[in-house]
Write a structure and sequence with these properties.
Chain A: Pathway: Carbohydrate metabolism; tricarboxylic acid cycle. The complex is a heterotrimer. By secondary structure, chain B is α/β, with parallel strands linked by helices. Chain B has 19 helices and 20 strands. In chain B, a hairpin with a 5-residue loop joins strand 9 and strand 10. Chain C has one domain. Classes of the chains: A alpha+beta, B alpha/beta, C mainly alpha. At the A-B interface, helix 1, helix 2, helix 3 and helix 4 of A face helix 3, helix 4, helix 10, helix 13 and helix 15 of B.
Chain lengths: ~290, ~650, ~280
Amino acid sequence: MSTAADSGTRAGAKDGPEGEDAGGAKVNPAPESGGERYDAHFRVWRGDAEGGGLRDFTVEVNEGEVVLDIIHRLQATQAPDLAVRWNCKAGKCGSCSAEINGRPRLMCMTRMSVFDRAETITVTPLRAFPVVRDLVTDVGFNYTKAREVPSFIPPQGLGPGEYRMQQEDVGRSQEFRKCIECFLCQDTCHVVRDHEENKPAFAGPRFLMRVAELDMHPLDAAEESGLDRKTSAQDTHGLGYCNITKCCTEVCPEGIKITDNALIPLKERAADRKYDPLVWLGNKIRRRA
Amino acid sequence: MTHAERRQWDVVVIGAGGAGLRAAIEAREQGLRTAVICKSLFGKAHTVMAEGGIAASMGNVNEGDNWQVHFRDTMRGGKFLNQWRMAELHAREAPDRVWELETWGALFDRTKDGRISQRNFGGHEYPRLAHVGDRTGLELIRTLQQKVVSLQQEDFRETGDYEARIKVFQECTVTRIVKDGERVAGVFCYERESGRFFVVEAPSVVLATGGIGKSFQVTSNSWEYTGDGHALALLAGASLINMEFVQFHPTGMVWPPSVKGILVTESVRGDGGVLRNSEGRRFMFDYVPDVFKEKYAETEEEADGWYEDPDRHRRPPELLPRDEVARAINAEVKAGRGSPHGGVFLDVSTRMSAETIKRRLPSMHHQFRELADVDITAEPMEVGPTCHYVMGGVDVDSDTAAAQGVPGLFAAGEVAGGMHGSNRLGGNSLSDLLVFGRRAGLHAAEYARACGDDRPVVRDAEVDAAAAEALRPFGTGAEQAPQTAGGAGSAGPPENPYQLHQELQQSMNDLVGIIRREEEMAAALERLATLRERAQRMAVEGHRQFNPGWHLALDLRNMLLVSECVARAALNRTESRGGHTRDDFPDMDREWRRANLVCTLADAAEDVRSGRIALRRREMPPIRSDLLELFEKEELIKYLTDEELTTK
Amino acid sequence: MATGTEPQQNAGPRPGGVREGSRAAIAAPHLRTDRWWLAPAGTALGLLAFVVYSTWRAFANADYYAAPYVSPFYSPCLADNCHEMRGGPNIGLFGEWWGLSPALIILIFPLGFRLTCYYYRKAYYRGFWASPPACAVAEPHKKYTGETRFPLILQNIHRYFFYAAVLVALVLSWDTLLGFRDAHYEWGHMGLGTLVFLVNIVLIWAYTLSCHSCRHIVGGRLKHFSRHPVRYRLWGWVGKLNARHMQLAWASLISVALADFYVYLLASGAFTDPRLF
């Protein structure tokens, strides 16, 4: 079977019968047995709102590990009070967001094998949000913004169980609902990252995407209830601040095409409402008729 | 006296996963002021990890489905040890709970005629799982989270305050349930970020804290799963049942080591994936137990035919309940027919087109590509069992989710016991969260309302004791903590909580794992006694602001308590059933079918080495006759004693 | 609590970026170790090169017609002072008073289309304006209002330029068709120039149709795809093209310059069009 061969090469000497690790059954090597290990150089930001700086560590790395494993090893061996947020360690919850070598990433999805062994790996907290301690930041901004987006408005006259939607109609919103709220897009977006003063006016890519999600929801009844999400995207949530430089799409660990599929379509929808006399006229005439 | 800010709410929900949020929504919709306390950020609960779907007999794909069939499947999956009333309520109410999610904005995958699509899953007779690709848990948690936000927006319009009637205290941990006499009076918590203590006073407390998986080394569970709710309930005087039943999910990742245990969804098999050993054989055909013989295919042709034409074929044995599949994989690996890294092969690459795989299993594709360099559209995955779920939990009233014996305490979701019997079917967890989350919220609200002005009181002495206990790992140096002076007592070097945790995980994994033996479990209890002793000497560095070492030290108390429950109950149950497999008692025993093992806190002993858990055996109420009539007599004979059958 | 969900009381908006007081104290504007400057620098150079070349050619008012080929920079030719092109895109909308190069009239439209294009916006905001220079690299500006105000709010009129670009592309298609003549306007011939024009027009169309506004107009604005199956299918096709918008933007930019340059070579006599048949 192909995997046997493939993983054999991946695991190096691990499976070889001449492997010296005698412990454990052949088929079930102890996690730490075999594989390659080496010492890596890390610089981790430590401190709190009062101040802090990058601290150097030398720490062991085993085959197949991710950055979060290394941070955990630091906790267990060298810095027991190193603060870090994490949960699932499988790229599904979006808790362990940090900046690794200056790039916003999930620590659990950043494999050590992408780095050169001699390289010093720098890990800092997200730099768009206030720091709490070490790698933990105050992401309250995002929860505030989440509250500012009016929720799904259920259609009148349809009870539970009566909703009918076609797959092609829910597909677009489903893509946006893959979001794990890691807030990496919010962190990398220069509108707030480089301009604290824009935070009150700008919802950020994640929550503009939420507006797009609801506007594309086939049964959302916002319009019927007098809420125009297309206009409010620009007037209330600061869509105009976005200059579509696509960093949000670049960092998204879920691979959501935030800019192309959510933000630009939303800009076009806002343009329909606010900058397109043809559409305006068309709607006027249709409503007459 | 400890300084701890006090806040007053009507209902406190501990945990913000599916059950907790559903309970909170219900309590708030009943008009009560509801606080949710959770260890992580809002929206990060372990529920996001659920992949496959929500089991509900809506009959959208196969009209033959109804609640009776779902009930039957659930009872069979749990080997008839389920609290039958819970299984009944669950099967009856699950469809309503799913439909309700749509009115809150959830977007499930659709059938051709626009209804919610449903997929096949292990142990379910019909396609039953409402799903969104393989990220159903994320959809569930996000929908509930957004529903909470929408309620907050409603309150904001009315009162100008988003948190007037529902508030989430995120990144806070509850260490004690405080009581006023018999009644629950509130909870004692610390804020992870600052380390500050606070008390939430409330007549109703809903436990929705999830499971205990972090006591095991190879687990699909996140760090939050330290059995907090189980332990809080014990310490508050409630009892736990069925703690010997721990579900090992058959398919977790086995390589590389750092991701060992991460879940590979059952949908892989539901959608056509097959298990093979190193010889290329679909070995599950060799492991169909007698009780399931009629329901499962005997040849590969028959099994493959089922995906297209389920009415004229029997199911592939890969879709047996999880306990059976996990044991089979374990046996194959032990027999030397495992994969290079100690698992077996799970293959979809030869079963579906690459496009289909990417569409139906996007997160599995992503997970294996990113974490293991495996392209599942081209090669098989390596998988092995991983600790996934605990069937045991707080002993609750089936209808109200109220914990027996502690007025004001409720439990829902994984922390509640009974619903799943000895083994949970895939997909039944998410529906369990919704059905019993709502019930717990509803009855907690009713109970709190009934208290009226007669609210229980949180006394300072209780708060001081809880604070002292929480500060203990800092030794005498940190803040005033009268009882910790010399509390460490026993001599010996200070202990590192990370080290203790690792040893605990190793012990549980090796000695109370998927296959159990009497000597090993006895040895586990010995080790737990030693760990308990060493835990008294735990010392942490640093201060109280976001100090993970300290947090772990506090969680270890809970893990040690629930681990002892698991080991003690497992040692006592001399049969194999569902999530409890004894090497020395390999068969199912009909006499044991109607027995629950009940754990309570033992009276405090002088010697820290003597166990903290008392165990007793309790008879289950007989299954209601109209429910029994849903089964064929021939099937019941396999589970029920002759005496039970005749009294029916 | 700072991770709480309540908005912070004291948080009057303070100006500042990654070195703002409450953020982690790190002096460096960024900690990226890769060659992040390569992409914006390359973009800026590429765009600059095109600007220099096209400015020269647009103002030149010469060497833009070599029968049967007309440079795409000068088509349609809307002034009286245009070179006479038989069957070609002469439309004398602008009278004799127009003394400048006729290219300046028509180029506004493709230029406007590209200037307001969602891809080019990204490219020049990053490459020329350093806003931001690259992801997670601090930008040098004190203030930022994005596209909320004049003049950048005008980016919202992209769709009108799209409509115009479609008209221009139609004319260029006609020009390409005329390329199947020889220098004496006999039909049924083909030269190397015809191929150059063919490649160019395919890229121009692909770029124009892959436009985000086009994707929106074709189907993106619908709420229910299921009720408009034809538009849904079109939306899907445009979506596939749209995923390559950046590549098409560059490819068509280069091809249009090459087509013009080819005409320049022919018209200035530096090169003779090899005839295929």
